[in-house]
Amino acid sequence: MKEQILIVEDQFVEADYVRLLLEQAGYGITGMARSVDQALELIKEKKPDFVLLDIFLKGKQTGIDLAKVLATDNIPFVFLSANSNEEVLNAAKQTHPYGFLVKPFREKDLLVALEIARYRHAHSMDARYHKETELRKLLKSIVTDAGTWPEKLLRIATALQSFIPFDFLAVGFDNIKDPFFKGRCFLRTGFDEYQEMGLQELATVTGMSGDALMALQAPDAVAEVAAIYKEAAFENICRQPSLRKLFADSFQLRSHLEMPMRMMDRKPFSFCLFSRRPDAYTTEQLELFERIQFSLMQTIEHLLQQEMSEAGKLLQQETKTRFDGIVGKSHLLLNVFDYISQVAPSDTSVLILGESGTGKEKIADCIHNLSARKGKPFVKLNCAALPATLIESELFGHEKGAFTGALEKRIGKFERADKGTLFLDEVGEMPVELQVKLLRVLQEKEIERVGGRDTIKVDVRIIAATNKNLEKEVADGRFRLDLYYRLNVFPITLPPLRDRREDIPALGYHFMNHYSHKAGKKLSGISDNVLRKMMAYNWPGNIRELEHLIERSVLLSKGPVIEEILLPTVTKKQGTEDAQDAAMKTIVENEKDYIISVLKKCNGRIWGPGAAAEILNINPSTLKSKMKKLGIKKEYME
Ligand SMILES: Nc1ncnc2c1ncn2[C@@H]1O[C@H](COP(=O)(O)OP(=O)(O)OP(=O)(O)O)[C@@H](O)[C@H]1O
Predict the structure, then answer these.
(1) Which residues carry this modification: 4-aspartylphosphate (predicted)?
(2) ipTM of the predicted structure?
(3) Is residue 132 part of a domain?
(4) Most confident of 259-263, 364-368, 391-395, 438-442
(5) Which terminus has fewer CB within 10 Å in the chain: N or C?
């Protein structure tokens, strides 16, 4: 069956004559309209393949007005008019008709005109199809091209330009509060020239702060369907302060085409095109967007994946600094690096303060490696892990027969650390009676083995660490003031992870690389979603907790990207209740609760990496005996 045609003609007799001719020639008729309004109604009911259109119609609007609508809706049309004066012809030409037939015409003239219009339209559809195929190919090729993220975005933008023109383009501006904000703007400054703008450049151009720009983004401003805003609709969206209004005011824009997409992980990502012309955007372009949307989305998806793994590689390189293995570059960590550089070369004692899992041992190790003692022993003693009776012999060694069970002579940690560094972890837990002895060794630089009479000279640098408030310990009589002064010569406080969130992605990638290598897995990235969750979490267990969670995610991940992280959910209310409860409990009860909570987190695992003993930083057998002593049974852990 041939095309369906709408006849728009105010003279009924003429319209009916045309209808007869067309039906005889095998065309279908969708309707006959006498005015523009009637025509629009009929088009709404059934979209015709062609419209035959008189210029002067009933009502105020003319065929020229209707032609403009048809052009934007991509409906081909041919004028039929008795008026062929220059003015009418010029106005008609502006609407790009497929033909113009002057009345009266012969039957043959009408059919030939329609035949030519059909041919031209089919030809232009064909050309459009070829152009779109080319565009799809181009989008695909951008993925493998060399270049940075904004360069590739610009390539996509310029590829679109010949289909959907723009003077200003904002890509991916759906969530500028996102820490991994990937948005960019491009201002067209010449035929093939664009000025690229990120958030910072935009802040410079508009004279607004980054925070003020962020505040302009409405939380629910993500559109779901593509839409054109022109004239009143454009004025409407520019009424309230918003990013779109800011773009419009700053770059004199007058119409807007929004092309929103949802990526595979349902995250929004849109192309917002703006033009200085009020009539730049048509429904034809919206339809084009619908057709190429999938290719566009695939390209962006690939580019985002590339970006994530590039970021990973970059982060990997950054860890190879002189503070080898210490990941992060937040200003708080950079301060720590400054302190390390100052103190490492000397023999000064260092006291490292910070919550559990903030990297105190790592920093101690780094100080040792940056000192002249590098290559000499780095010996660690955890003062909390051993009972008071054993610490002394651990530190200073013992002679054979010094006490029951001392069957052999034993060299203590001080002697083993000779010419090197002794790291006293959890020094705040050291029994008071031993603190005196430690102080003496630090002052006199010699030790006596337990049960021995000789003094032995030792050359040891002390680095101590604690997660306790030593001043409070001193005030409460649990820590000697003189030892405190001795150790506190050069204190370095490590910030908790929640105060240096910008280091979280780098640390995440660092542990991902480490554990995927260990597990023989090939992982290339962490999904945005997981990174966002990590950034939002409060990290009570600091870097150690992050490390364990990433280790677990690496082991559980099935694809090349970490898509899941099992963060504990602690509500604020619970937190405060816990704190109140804790205040009422004895130290033993608190210890019991803490061990149970750690065991629960590890599903009752005591041994192995990431298991309770490691988190608690005690020997698995010590943990087992503690559990026995505190009456912690297996059912507590489920
Ligand atoms: N900046 C860092 N970069 C990379 N890894 C780190 C960093 N800081 C800490 N880690 C890792 O996090 C884990 C915990 O760090 P570490 O044992 O040094 O913490 P800590 O403060 O000594 O803990 P605790 O007080 O419980 O003894 C270790 O596996 C360590 O290697």
Answers:
(1) 54
(2) 0.95
(3) no
(4) 364-368
(5) N
CA distance 16 to 32: 8
Total domain count, the chain: 3
- Tell me, yes or no, whether 341 and 446 share the same domain: yes
In a shared domain, residues 378 and 464: yes
Taken in order 16, 18, 23, 27, is the CA torsion positive or negative? negative
Domain assignment present for residue 136? The answer is: no
**Residue ranges making up the domain that contains 28:** 4-127
Domain boundary among 466, 495, 524: 495
Structure tokens that stand for 212 in this block: 């003020």
Q: CA distances (Å), 157 to each of 142, 264, 372, 530, in order?
A: 11, 21, 56, 29
Q: Is residue 23 located within the same domain as residue 50?
A: yes
Q: In this predicted model, what pLDDT tens digit does every residue of 544-560 receive, in sequence order?
A: 999 999 999 999 998 88
Grouping H, G, I as helix, E, B as strand and the rest as coil, residue 78 is strand
- Claim to verify: residue 389 and residue 347 sit in the same structural domain: yes
- Residues forming a β-bridge with 378: 421
Asked if 466 and 353 count as a contact pair (C-beta separation under 8 A), the reply is yes
Give the span between the Cα atoms of 339 and 117, in whole angstroms: 80
Summarize pLDDT for 276-320 with one digit per residue, the tens: 999 899 888 888 888 898 889 889 988 887 776 666 555 555 445
Q: 81 with 164, same domain? A: no
Q: Hey, is 476 helix, strand or coil?
A: coil
Distance 356 CA to ligand 1 centre (A): 8
The reply to whether 112 and 161 lie within a common domain is no
pLDDT at residue 405, rounded to an integer: 74
Give distance in angstroms: CA of 523 to centre of ligand 1: 23
Please give the single-letter amino acid code of residue 541: G
305 and 337 together in one domain: no
Q: Report the predicted TM-score, pTM, of the whole model to 2 decimal places.
A: 0.50
For a ligand 1 pocket test, name from 329, 361, 494, 509 the mutation site with the most ligand atoms within 8 angstroms of its C-beta. 361
Is residue 27 a part of any domain in this protein? yes
> In this structure, are 348 and 447 located in the same domain?
yes
User: How many whole angstroms separate alpha carbon 597 and alpha carbon 229?
Assistant: 56
